[in-house]
Design brief:
By secondary structure, this protein is α+β, with helices and mostly antiparallel strands. It folds into 3 domains: about 5-70, Uridine Diphospho-n-acetylenolpyruvylglucosamine Reductase, domain 2, CATH 3.30.43.10; about 80-210, 2-Layer Sandwich (Uridine Diphospho-n-acetylenolpyruvylglucosamine Reductase, domain 3); about 230-290, UDP-N-acetylenolpyruvoylglucosamine reductase, C-terminal domain (Uridine Diphospho-n-acetylenolpyruvylglucosamine Reductase, domain 1, Alpha-Beta Complex). It is built from 6 helices and 20 strands. A hairpin with a 2-residue loop joins β17 and β18 (about 245). The longest helix has 19 residues, at about 265-280. The structure holds flavin-adenine dinucleotide. Flavin-adenine dinucleotide binds near residues 56, 117, 128, 217 and 290. Keywords: Cell cycle, Cell division, Cell shape, Cell wall biogenesis/degradation, Cytoplasm, FAD, Flavoprotein, NADP, Oxidoreductase, Peptidoglycan synthesis.
Length: about 300
């Protein structure tokens, strides 16, 4: 092993909510070859969780009893590859957006506003302003726990709104095939104009999102034909607080950590919002954020 193995690692360091429990083990691979060897050597029963920038993730206070693979800063290659953009899973999505713009491509600008990794964007089909990650994907490289690499194309996956699943995989089961890289095809265009759009998009985000406090972006998926933020605000929940967690006054679909929030505070507030919105409107909001690990 050439990477770094961390024992009893506080996951608050690795998630954007800056809250939550520890991982029994966390591994920062040296590179893709090292990650293949590491996964192949793990016991078959060891739970594995891939984490990018943790910007859509809550690890409960009792922690994750398995091995977390930390891809950010590890799988970090991004380059042109015969007219396509090749990016490894740990590359930050905004870095990919800027790389595409610098190389004269357009269509990837929206990724500048998504503070996760390429791997997280692929897993979530992250998107905003009418664009989604998989619209740009030509091919992906996946890795399974035996260390086998596979090149797959979008037809191998069911792809929807914040939803990606390998076709034929048991529904609801955690995927045992993870994204380690992808080839993207953005449209050839005017690089300077793309860079201008990135700038405008970031200004809009700063104006509308509570980026000064730890958060995980939109907590709930938008229900068909409506907006989670609108429903939460209409139920008078802006500013509602449990412990150190608060429904943002700036954007009702964000929950911010006021400083000392536990994962339990955040999860309790998620449940309170769900129950209140369901009680008042009959609509059940589904979380977009992923919640893993054990309760204390
Ligand atoms: C301020 C803010 C704004 C945001 N705005 C948006 C937005 O506009 N649109 C949007 O869609 N999201 C948004 N998000 C949410 C988040 O940034 C995205 O979901 C992002 O794609 C998550 O990437 P990540 O690397 O942080 O993933 P993580 O949070 O680390 O992981 C998320 C999920 O993906 C899985 N995963 C991570 N890496 C891999 C991999 N390599 N292979 C397989 N599975 C993997 C994890 O196991 C987990 O289930 C926002 C978040 C914040 C904090």
């Amino acid at each position: 092993m050439r990477g770094r193995l961390l024992i009893d690692e506080p996951m608050a360091r690795h998630v954007s909510w800056r809250a939550g429990g520890r991982a029994a083990r966390a591994y920062v691979p040296a590179d893709l070859a090292d990650l293949r060897a590491f996964l192949a050597a793990l016991p078959a029963t060891e739970p594995v969780l891939f984490v990018g920038l943790g910007s859509n993730l809550l690890v409960r206070d009792g922690g994750f009893r398995g091995t977390v693979i930390l891809t950010h800063g590890a799988l970090k290659e991004v380059r042109m590859d015969a007219g396509r953009i090749y990016a490894e899973a740990g590359v930050a999505a905004p870095k990919l957006a800027r790389f595409a713009a610098r190389h004269g491509y357009q269509g990837a600008e929206f990724l500048a506003g998504i503070p996760g990794t390429v791997g997280g964007a692929l897993a979530m089909n992250a998107g905003c302003y009418g664009a989604e990650t998989w619209q740009l994907v030509d091919e992906v490289l996946t890795l399974d726990r035996r260390g086998t690499l596979r090149r797959r194309n979008p037809n191998d996956f069911e792809i929807g709104y914040r939803h990606v699943a390998l076709r034929g995989a048991p529904s609801g089961a955690a995927s045992e095939e993870w994204f380690v890289a992808a080839w993207f095809t953005a449209r050839a265009g005017e690089g300077a104009a793309a860079q201008q759009r990135i700038k405008a998009l970031l200004e809009k985000r700063i104006a509308t999102q509570p980026l000064n406090l730890p958060n995980a972006g939109s907590v709930f998926r938008n229900p068909p034909g409506d907006f989670a933020a609108r429903l939460i605000e209409a139920c008078g929940l802006k500013g509602r607080r449990i412990g150190g967690a608060q429904v943002s006054g700036k954007h009702a679909n964000f929950i911010v950590n006021l400083g000392q929030a536990t994962a339990a505070d955040i999860e309790a507030l998620i449940e309170l919002v769900q129950a209140t919105v369901a009680g008042e409107t009959g609509i059940t909001l589904e979380p977009e954020v992923r919640i893993v690990g054990e309760k204390t």
